Amino acid sequence: MAFLGGLFSKENKESLDKGLQKTSESFFGKLGKALVGKSTVDDEVLDNLEEILVSSDVGVETTLKIIERIQARVARDKYLGAAELDRILKEEIAALLSENQSVELKDFALTGVKKPYVIMVVGVNGVGKTTTIGKLSAQFKNAGNNVVLGAADTFRAAAVDQLKLWGERVGVPVINKGMNTDPSAVAFEAVKAGVEQHADVIIIDTAGRLHTKVNLMEELSKIKRVMQKVIPDAPHEVLLVLDGSTGQNAAIQAREFTKATDVTALAITKLDGTAKGGVVIGISDEFKIPVKYIGVGEKVNDLQLFNKTAFVDSLFRKG
Questions:
Q1: Considering only CA atoms, which of 285, 208, 193 is closest in space to residue 243?
Q2: Closest by Cα among 17, 53, 98 to 285
Q3: Angle formed by the axes of helices 248-260 and 279-287, to 10°?
Q4: How many CB atoms sit inside 10 A of residue 315's CB?
Q5: Is the Cβ–Cβ distance between 10 and 4 less than 8 Å?
Q6: CB neighbour list of residue 217: distance below 8 Å, 6 or more residues apart
Q7: DSSP for 194-207?
Q8: Per-residue pLDDT tens for 230-270?
Q9: Which residues pair with 204 in a beta bridge?
Q10: Quick one: which of 20, 103, 27 has its CA closest to 66?
Q11: Which of 65, 98, 71, 96 is nearest to 85 (CA)?
């Protein structure tokens, strides 16, 4: 398979297949029922397909776009039958992801990336933000990078403690000032320490609150400004973590955060154990922000670099 190679191994693909199994089974189960007794892709089939895509959390706008593309192909290629619908659908979803995926990291070694590479992580509490940072730090370290973490989510005691635990587990330093301290001061110290310690990657955790967009915007802007006193073009990545199992709620959170700050990359977690994996397609299409990482299980290696070819293959895997 073309997408295997580099760090996207057979084990990665097996993990992805397993993580997307519920989404795939739910989708094809519904699609199979919609095609019973059908030999052509008629209006009824397309109406049913539209309902299936929306119920798989692809999102209304993205669903309509996919339906329009399939209608155009059916009109163009008169011989296309209902039996070929899954192939056409797979091709159109792959094309959609290709259009919206302007960046696709090749490895966790950050080959060709300017270092230290500073990542500011945003997202509401409960989406797996701190766990994602922990897994990212492990993956980056395993790839040979020197990693420094900054615990700038200072309004929740559990966030600081959880990040410290991940630091101990992975063996990377965590710069923290405890609870109720100025998040920007922590970010400044973390970036400064990262430069002094010749870090390759500096990851800054930030508060997971959407109490008001104005306050959030001001806080994140201040964090950026103080980091830039040390590294003028920091952060190099603003990573929004979203919980894929919440479906369209994840899209709502993405809308709020993209209004509050310049999000440059997405991590979509908790795709295993849910039938809502279609949300990856909708979010990628709506926001035109690259999905860089997806979480398909509990293990560190189950946080994967997003590979659109492998993702579509797993999504359309039968059995």
A1: 208
A2: 98
A3: 30
A4: 23
A5: yes
A6: 259, 260, 261
A7: HHHTT-SEEEEEE-
A8: 999 999 999 999 999 999 899 988 988 888 889 999 999 99
A9: 120, 150
A10: 27
A11: 71
The two three-digit tokens of residue 110, written as one number = 């950050």
Distance CA 165, CA 133 (A): 12
Q: Which helix (H) or strand (E) holds 240?
A: strand 237-243
Task: Write out pLDDT tens, residues 34-89.
Answer: 888 888 888 898 999 999 999 889 999 999 999 999 999 888 877 677 778 888 89
For residue 237, give the 3-state DSSP assignment: strand
Helix (H, G, I), strand (E, B) or coil at 19: helix
d(CA 226, CA 252): 29
Tokens matching residue 125: 């509490």
Q: Considering the entire predicted model, what is its pTM?
A: 0.92
Contact 155, 209 (CB under 8 A): yes
DSSP-based three-state secondary structure for 150: strand
